[in-house]
């Protein structure tokens, strides 16, 4: 299955939210990474058909999704950035209700629910009211409703917002499990959410495609630009003024810094293996002309 963005642009008034995007998605997990306002939600809204692009086409296996109607919608599952639930519904009632909205017959719904509950680790909470669920459980319920129709394309918009570290890890494991034979698009500005599960990372910057590739490939591209230094407080302050610093840790009198720079920032700096977060910061670096 191939989902193609063919010269897709979206304008709000005179301002481009997306500009001439050309991206091809196939099966696997894609992390769509971008700072606030980079265009992630706009892109996802266009892919889900909620929003119409100003120009360009979105094609699934060669057909414009506009012409596919419900045939296209039947293939997608979607968890919006701010999912709305009925707080007084019980988990099971809510999912049965969502099945009926998605035209899944009751008999089939009763068959698939236990399996889906197991996939998202909510078996013990089937009879809880939604208002009694934690934030993480709610997000897992959101994933459950998105996969009821066994979608071939699963789209998750900032799915880990507000989750604690334990829930984030649980979420990542669930996504890895349900990603088999599917295309999964996850938008986020939290690098660690996708670093270990994304087969491909798409970095958006001010509505444009900045970079796309595997985590390994993207990191390789900035090989030689990430430095570790161990300095005193005064030198650290000086370095911070002149270089993009991705991490700082104070140990006793020393300051351990991780610096992104094409040039060696200081004599005793040691080159370090780039991580995805460094790539993401490099994008800002380039934007700011550092
Ligand atoms: N309805 C709208 N009307 C006008 N401008 C909009 C509208 N929706 C989004 N924008 C603008 O389009 C750009 C992209 O917004 P979008 O919400 O897609 O970004 P995002 O990457 O999802 O951001 P965030 O991480 O903050 O959710 C921003 O400059 C935003 O201000």
Automatic annotation (TrEMBL):
Keyword field contains Ribosomal protein: no
One family name in Pfam for this protein: ABC_tran
InterPro entries registered for this protein in UniProt: AAA+_ATPase, ABC_transporter-like_ATP-bd, ABC_transporter-like_CS, P-loop_NTPase
Enzyme Commission number(s) from the entry: 3.6.3.-
Top-level taxon of the source organism: Bacteria
Assigned keywords, A-Z: ATP-binding, Hydrolase, Nucleotide-binding, Transport
Signal peptide (residue range): none
Domain ABC transporter: 3-231
One Gene Ontology term of the molecular function aspect: ATP binding
Protein family membership: Belongs to the ABC transporter superfamily.
PANTHER family linked to this entry: ABC TRANSPORTER, ATP-BINDING PROTEIN
Protein name per the record: ABC transporter ATP-binding protein
Organism: Anaerostipes hadrus
């Amino acid at each position: 299955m191939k989902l193609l963005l063919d010269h897709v642009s979206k304008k709000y008034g005179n301002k481009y939210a997306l500009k001439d995007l050309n991206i091809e998605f196939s099966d696997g997990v894609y992390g769509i990474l971008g700072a606030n306002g980079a265009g992630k939600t706009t892109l996802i809204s266009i892919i889900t058909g909620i929003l119409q692009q100003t120009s360009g086409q979105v094609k699934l296996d060669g057909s414009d999704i506009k012409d596919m109607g419900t045939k296209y919608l039947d293939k997608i599952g979607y968890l919006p950035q701010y999912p709305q639930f009925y707080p007084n519904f019980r988990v099971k009632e809510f999912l049965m209700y969502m099945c009926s909205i998605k035209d899944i017959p009751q008999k089939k719904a009763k068959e698939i629910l236990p399996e889906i509950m197991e996939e998202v680790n909510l078996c013990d909470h089937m009879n809880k009211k939604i208002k009694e669920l934690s934030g993480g459980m709610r997000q897992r319920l959101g994933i459950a409703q998105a996969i009821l129709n066994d979608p071939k394309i699963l789209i998750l918009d900032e799915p880990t917002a507000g989750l604690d570290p334990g829930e984030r890890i649980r979420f990542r494991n669930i996504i890895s499990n349900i990603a088999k034979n599917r295309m999964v698009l996850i938008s986020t500005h939290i690098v660690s959410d996708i670093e270990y599960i994304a087969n491909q990372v798409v970095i958006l910057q001010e509505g444009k495609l900045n970079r796309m590739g595997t985590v390994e490939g993207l990191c390789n591209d900035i090989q030689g630009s990430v430095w570790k230094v161990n300095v005193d407080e005064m030198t650290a302050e000086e370095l911070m003024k002149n270089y993009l610093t991705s991490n700082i840790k104070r140990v006793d009198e020393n300051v351990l810094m991780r610096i992104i720079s094409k040039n060696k920032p200081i004599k005793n700096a040691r080159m370090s293996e780039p991580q995805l977060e460094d790539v993401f910061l490099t994008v800002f670096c380039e934007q700011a002309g550092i």
